[in-house]
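Format is chain and fold; as here:
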Amino acid sequence: MSRLRFNEDGTFKIVQFTDIHWQNGEPADWRSLALMKEIAANEKPDLVVFTGDVIHSELTADPKAAFADAVSVVTGEGGVPWAFVFGNHDAEEGVSRNELMELARKLPGCMAEQGPVDVHGVGNYRLSVHRSAAPEEVGASLYLFDSGSYAPQEIGGSAWIHRSQIDWYVRESSRLKAGNRGNVVRSLAFFHIPLPEFNEVWDFRACCGHNFEGVGCPKINSGLFHAFWERGDVKGVFVGHDHVNDYWGTLHGIRLCYGKATGYNGYGSEGLPRGARIIRLHEDERPFDTWLRLDNGQVVYEQPVHIPAIQDLILQSNKRLRS
């Protein structure tokens, strides 16, 4: 597999597909594949990242075949490099995470890795995007985490990123900084289940997009966001899990972004199209760009602005003071 590398124009484009929920080749599955093919053809990504629930294993007769079908948008002729992380439905029944990772690693273009055996989960790994004119140098880094499935029964809700995963990230981040003349390497992070901070950014910051179901985050905050902030390298976090949320907002300098649910076999909301989130990295110091491409052909560069109630009260109070 060739290295990921910035293009000559200094850009690197990622398409994020999420929550495909492929089952048994029903019409909804092939509709999902057709949408992914259309988006890939229009966006021409340098990398595709699937952020979990590629398949719905509990409802799938042959999970391995389903997984191969779901990612065939990137494994067929003219495919592009791709990576993935596990969601809570990928390996609940009939297949294990290890088995799916072993399968994926044999498919064309796959850049996913098993990850260190002493780190919690399967598929914690890092990808480097090398500089265009200096291919030996890392221009950007992508961290991919296994965010698990469910919390212990006595706690309930979603799983969380474990301490061993956070420690692994800190080691990788420190190693990259040391190899980059003491400068942090700008990075993005991808996983399935949103962090508790996705609630905070929606409740207390101006955001762009929709929140139609609340945030399915863990009840335990294990500190990954704090590690990102402390290290200063991760500038964007991309998740899935909540199909009818597609918002993003910035919290303490880090953009927290939902993807756009892609699959037609998962639940949705009437009037809310499926699609994908697109991310464009720049080799220089500019922030990354992100937009949505939808199944109705629309490209959304500016999502509707959400002002939290508390912020709205402050704005109204300031207006009254000025009047």
